[in-house]
Amino acid sequence: MWTGPAANSEGEVNAAPVVSANAFISEIHYDNAGADVGEFIEITADAGADLGGYSLVLYNGNGGTAYNTVNLSGIVPDEVNGQGAVAFSISGIQNGSPDGVALVDPDGNVVEFLSYEGTLTATDGPAAGLTSTDIGVAETSSTPVGQSLQLINGVWTGPAANSEGQVNSGGNGGGPGESKFIHEVQGSGTDSPLVGQTVTVEAVVTGDFQNGDADTLRNLEGFYIQEEDTDSDADGSTSEGLFIFEDGNFLTDVNVGDVVQVTGTVEEAFGQTQLTVTSASDITVVSSGNPLPTTATVNFPVATVDDLESFEGMQVTIPDTLFVTEYFNLDRFGEVVLSSNGASNAPGTDGRLDQYAQFNSPDVAGFTAYQEDIAKRRIVLDDGQFIQNPDPIIHGRGGNPLSSNNTLRGGDTVNNLSGILGFGFGDYRIQPTAPVDFQATNPRPNAPEDVGGDLKVVSFNVLNFFTTLDVSGNPGSGPIGLDPRGADSQAEFDRQLDKLVTTLEIIDADIVGLIELENEFVSDQNGDGLVAINTLVDALNAKVGAGTYAAVNPGQTFVDVSDAISVGAIYKTSTVELAQGTSVEILDDSDLPGLGLNPGNAVFNGPSTNRAALAATFEEKATGEKVTVAVNHFKSKGSVSPGAGNTDAGDGAGNNNAIRLQGAQALDAWLDSDPTGSGDSDYLIIGDLNAYAKEDPITFLEGEGYTNVVDNPESAYSFVFDGQFGTLDYGLASTTLISQVTGATEWHVNADEPDALDYNLDFGRDPSLFDGTVPFRNSDHDPLIIGLDLTGGGGNSPTEINGTNRRDTLTGTEGDDIIKGFGSRDRITGGAGDDIIVGGRGSDILTGGDDNDTFVFEKILDRSDRITDFEVGADLLDFSGVFELSRYGSLTPFDDYIRVSQGNGRTFVQVDLNGDFGNRDRFRTFATLNGVIAADLTVDSFVL
């Protein structure tokens, strides 16, 4: 073989080329029916290999001591497929139970240590401290002369007619398969190029996940190995790690740091390349206590998810901070989903994943790109166990198991996560080799933030609170007797009720809208002896005081005409009461014709529709002021509702966008009709609308004058699905009510907590994980808490005054008015009261009059108006309708799209018509303000 460049040896005979040996024991004969003669051990190796320096050391099973050493010699002949066999005659091979032999290389390393009739641990010689591998077959005193034990295709067989000094059958010298480096087994693609082949690899154990060994918390039915650094290749696309699958058995005990030689069949299992072994003889511990190969560094986000394939089976460290973003499978499979920061984060959020439609208008191309992007930020942390319902659940904070007081919350973090990178069930996943030190980055909020005001209104999804237990033989629920959906046993029901009462006691609300409540009111319709809403009120009053809360009576047994769940409401009797002269009303399909709506399909009545809405007007006892609360539960994104537009369009809105929008349209029209007879325009829409903040149902209601009470809706959340956070639970205040909202908060006691801590006892869950004295994980949705200071701003419904598309002169009343000029050049005067003035198209002259007035510009053509008496600090300019256009994407529209200038004693308010389109600005004047100093006009003068 030509080599070099190297130091010259001019005039000297060059050294002979060194041929790799790949030697192994291939045949043994130690006992038969005749005299103890003719015994031998055969070595198979690569043709041309020099066996000089190799030795066979014979061991006695009684004490594990070496009793003979045979030094080998000779050049291996080329017999079959580049291999040859050399037999060494050895008299007196012991045949006790057990005895064995070690093959030792010229450097004194044990190549393999085999035994027959059992295993033994060597106490001296080169194999000292090693435990032999039992070949599984044996000879006896009755074995016929001329037979031996032979290795055929990596499996010891016999006794059979010997083939002393000849390569055994099987095409590989009888040996364990062609020796390969792990990077050759892995290849550069997703699947191994050697699938189905029998190969032998030698590498270092980096992850011990065997079943049946001393470590009971890491059980994947095998172990991971990785090439020593000196055996790694320079190809970054090939992995140096490999999973060894023992096929449900505990074959040969290995430990981290062992160098092992393993023979098995290359397979792809659930997308992971592995070597499957079926016999203890396929695994040989060559040496122990070796240093581990270098750990690979993997940075997140990755360039592409496929890049992780080149690290499959290897030790990895992720130096980036990772955030807990999903824990749905924590109790069932011990899994946590982690994510890194990235360009796709919603503004104002941490490194968790967000729902696309929470901060983006639904769009197919945008949603597709977003899903691809967040996949690069995502990795699964497994628990190193191939079992369901682990106990304990090892992933809690600080490297300690999960418990009620040692949770693991969404938004908690881990730095420098290390482990073995595997693949399974569709995801790349880290199998930890040590406890994971999660940091409590997202502390538990023991109490909700103060929302101010004199009244607190709460939207609370109670996660299927049913008094009818979901057990065989119990009656159905609701008007058509559907299966109950709540607790499966009395123990579960008691736990669920405890949590809900604890939570409600801490919130101390005045009005609570309940969602996912068993659909049964007024009377016990199904005969189980209980009514869910009354049971909840009774339990709450037992804790906070008799008569503290009362349930809203809807006046009929079922609120929803077709479902097992419905909405309901309770209230604190000392602070509010149902307003006299009003009625509790329910919105269902029977109301639609009277509202002028004909959607062509069921909207509230029937399977896979929205649940009927419930509205009640409450009067604050201290002030006599009123507010109407409408409790809602729109159709989920699950099963597809009949009707056009309900199939997932792939734009981020999921299933059933159309029927949710129809529900929003019906709700808006219904509230416009003052269904309860309150005579007051203060409306608060609450409930689970099953739509994220930029989806059609929400933007429609906002376009009709309702305002989301939560600050920064794009970064808000109340629910997590598929590891992505967003808002499904809302408070939307009417135009007259929004100024009376003092604050709002989503109390993150549920969405951030693992469901392992909830009331369920399914799958043998450890009951001690539950603590009914704390509010955490009382449901799967976070409660939304809203503060109100009812000042009478709503008063009676404002007077609506509408112009025409011709020139109009419109004058308001002495109260609150909504005046719309529509088209042409109008002259509008509001007069006294808090007026809303919409000039519409045309150059209008607008005068607000006394009190606080809002001048509304709904569309981009509603401009060139002159306002004669704008008062900074009292009046407002409303451009929110204009900035709903897709060309305006900034979160700071006042800074980015509005220009204010001064001239001739007037202030000019201009808007960039191009917005984010194009490369240049195109400002046009929307309003000219008489007598206003431009510098006094700030963002606080605008509704944006």
TrEMBL record:
Residues 9-134 form the LTD domain. Residues 168-177 have a biased composition (Gly residues). The keyword Hydrolase applies. GO terms for molecular function: calcium ion binding; endonuclease activity. It comes from the Bacteria. Transmembrane segments: none annotated. PANTHER family: ENDONUCLEASE/EXONUCLEASE/PHOSPHATASE FAMILY PROTEIN (AFU_ORTHOLOGUE AFUA_3G09210), ENDONUCLEASE_EXONUCLEASE_PHOSPHATASE FAMILY PROTEIN (AFU_ORTHOLOGUE AFUA_3G09210). Residues 160-180 are annotated as: Disordered. This is ExeM/NucH family extracellular endonuclease. Keywords: Endonuclease, Hydrolase, Nuclease.
